[in-house]
Amino acid sequence: MPVDNIKLSQKAKESLSRLKRNIGIQQWNILCRWAFCTSLKEPSIPPKMNHPADSNVEMTWKIFAGEYGELYWALLKQRLKNDRIELTEHNLHTQFRLHLHRGISYLSSNSFFC
Q: Contact at 8 Å (CB) between 12 and 55?
């Protein structure tokens, strides 16, 4: 089952705010989709880091994924299989959060966007 609510860290919120200003995309969910897919593309497993849910940016899975929720969830499941990570609800939710935050970090450090 996909994540019910997605709440970003303050650091991720600040990075997305800079991206919003610099590239003109105003919706958090679109930037988060880009970030998630950017991280999935990276062949390495995202490092286990604590990303506190300490910002006021929060969205439901439906807002994050839109009409493609099943596709994003299937991509995550396939990625866990490829990385040989057991497909438990806890692992899926943890890896989603790690991929999302790693992707936000990648997008915000890309000189093309900033």
A: yes
For the chain, the domain total comes to 1
Query: What is the extent of the structural domain holding 68?
Result: 5-109
pTM (2 d.p.):
0.90
pLDDT digits (tens, 9 = 90+) for 7-66: 999 999 899 898 888 888 888 899 999 999 999 999 999 998 878 777 878 899 999 999
Instruction: Determine, yes or no, domain membership for 114.
Output: no
Burial of 42-75, coded b for 16+ CB within 10 Å and e otherwise, reads eeebbeeeebeeebebebebeebbeeeeeebbee
Q: What is the CATH number of the domain that holds 27?
A: 1.10.1220.160
